[in-house]
Amino acid sequence: MTEDHRNAGEQEREVELILRIKSGDLMALEHLFKRYQRPLYQTALGITHDAELAEEIVQDCFYRLYRYAGRLDESLPLAPWLYRVLINLCYSRLKRRRFWSEPFHKLAGRLRAGPGSAPEHIVERREVHELVRETLRELSAHHRAVLVLHYFQDYSVAEIAEILQCSEGTVKSRLHHARRLLKQRLSKELDLFANAFSNQF
Predict the structure, then answer these.
(1) Is 184 exposed, middle or buried (0-12, 13-18, 19+ CB in 10 A)?
(2) Does the pLDDT at position 130 exceed 50?
(3) What whole-number distance in Å separates Cα of residue 135 and Cα of residue 147?
(4) How many beta carbons lie within 10 A of that of residue 137, not counting itself?
(5) Which of 7, 28, 91, 168 fits 161 for a cystine, CB–CB 3.0-4.6 Å?
(6) Which CATH number fits domain 1-102: 3.30.2420.10, 3.90.550.10, 1.10.1740.10, 2.40.50.140?
(7) What pTM, to 2 d.p., does this model score?
(8) What confidence score (pLDDT) does residue 189 get?
(9) Contact 16, 7 (CB under 8 A)
(10) What pLDDT does residue 133 have?
């Protein structure tokens, strides 16, 4: 089966599930929950940095899917709608919470677990992760949302613009701002390290 046929089959299955949800079928909702739970949770976690809150937001997202299913256009892909609802929920929850409960190196390990994420490698990169965490603190939730969607969920600029209902220029601007801030912080830290090293000799 080709990739196009597989995608078409998944889209047809999704349409069927949405129609069943519209008729009140909770089993259909559970199927979609299992399909999207992980990427949605990773996205919410990346924006909120709070595992418990991320779980609550995902659950709330699917509650809204069930509640507002009747308003959905089943001819359109479901994923952009889910991410839009999820990110708006993240924004509203973050307005009530002004602290970050988890170091970035732990968050990064959860989001990008892989062969290079063994404990010794994480320890090696701890200072960089700490710097990234501090940089993320300086960014708004809107900027963090763009970064998570782009770097962790692999969405394109155009797809992010659709999800966030903003222009591609806005998405590019937020990505540029975040990258520039991180580059500035990294350059500053590298200069400090170089100076400290040279002073030893």
Answers:
(1) exposed
(2) yes
(3) 12
(4) 12
(5) 168
(6) 1.10.1740.10
(7) 0.64
(8) 61
(9) no
(10) 66
